[in-house]
Specification:
Strand content: 5-15%
Number of helices: 2
Low-confidence stretches: none
Largest sheet: 2 strands, antiparallel
Number of strands: 2
Distance between the termini: 12 Å
Shape: elongated
Number of domains: 1
């Protein structure tokens, strides 16, 4: 089964769907960050920045899989 890909057009420049998914994933992570700080997410990991990056990649993968 193949999906239809809708490019993002800004002006006359077309961006691949991946760029849109990456931007949406970044926005989701930025919204979730204060919640993660409140619950002590950084204290659970020895490298919290790597854990946040993994969370971003996971969200990006989920968005791509759901499209």
């Amino acid at each position: 089964m193949t999906g239809t890909f809708h490019e993002l057009a800004i002006g006359e420049v077309l961006f691949a769907p991946f760029v849109t998914y990456a931007a949406v994933s970044l926005i989701i992570v930025m919204v979730i960050r204060p919640i993660l700080q409140f619950v002590g997410f950084a204290k659970l990991f020895s490298r919290p920045s790597l854990a946040e990056l993994s969370l971003y990649v996971s969200i990006l993968g989920i968005l791509i899989a759901l499209s």
